[in-house]
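Q: Give me a backbone?
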Amino acid sequence: MHQQHDHKERMSLLQDALWGVAVGDGFGERFFVDPGVVEQLVAERALPAAPWGVTDDTVMACGIAACLLSHGEIVEDELAQTYALNYSTDMYRGYGGTAHSILRNICLGQSWQEAASEPFSGTGSMGNGGAMRAAPLGAYFFDEPARVVSEARKSARVTHWHPEGQAGAIAIALAASWAVQARRATPQQDLFTYVLTHMPDCDLKVRIAKAQALSPNVDVRTATAALGNGSQIIALDTVPFTLWCAAKYMEDFEEAMWLTVSGLGDRDTTCAIVGGIVAARLGRDAIPSKWRASVEDLGDAFSWSSIMSPVTS
């Protein structure tokens, strides 16, 4: 584990990103309505009614946060059990079909290695679930890009055996680490260049380069046509668009959320990802108090209260 004072600071940064994940998740989840209605609500900047219930995006991010709080690193066996415990506590949080199968099997005693590697004829999942929960991890290891890559890979492969699924987690964790660096000093590289520099070679890296080349001034429909919007529920279809949104509104949490949700698709997940990155850059106080107050009160569920308490020892 890092030195104690260092761990305290890192946990505070993690908490910022986790607040962004939870607010983005709850906000986006409320927009699964007719696209025409979404367009009208976005145009009016009409906030959905509270409370904003969170989904598996936040629950699984809490699993990562709890692991880092206890160990200062990802311990895969423990993380798998935490994911499974949180799933068994409340399995109606929007988990995808593959996640249901993997987590149910872990609950029944199967090793996470077997459970994660079995889907899709043994290739494992390349879904966006690894990415949706990765921003707090990137904030925690903000100054160690090689560590971000290795720890993000571990956090993902417990459920996402496919390298592209793991690459999604790596990309978002790197983006969040860049965001924390950017709040401390002017970064030497832009967001996309930093992510691409440290990512392993893979199909997702090519897609992210495409997002980098896309002008921030194009309309959101052009962006989603080129990059996807999470509708396929895979990292390849989700991560490039979320990085494009985060890069466009890195200095404005609210506008980042409105842009992201207007892209439709997997709205809770895209907003959770962008929320985590932008909150890592700006801090939790940049999230409007009304938005934070709208998120459901999790209390002690999923270790939320202990994760979000100041680290004192």
Notes: The two ends are 13 Å apart (CA to CA). Residues 4-308 form a domain with the ADP-ribosylglycohydrolase fold fold (CATH 1.10.4080.10). Residues 41 and 47 are 8 Å apart (CA to CA).
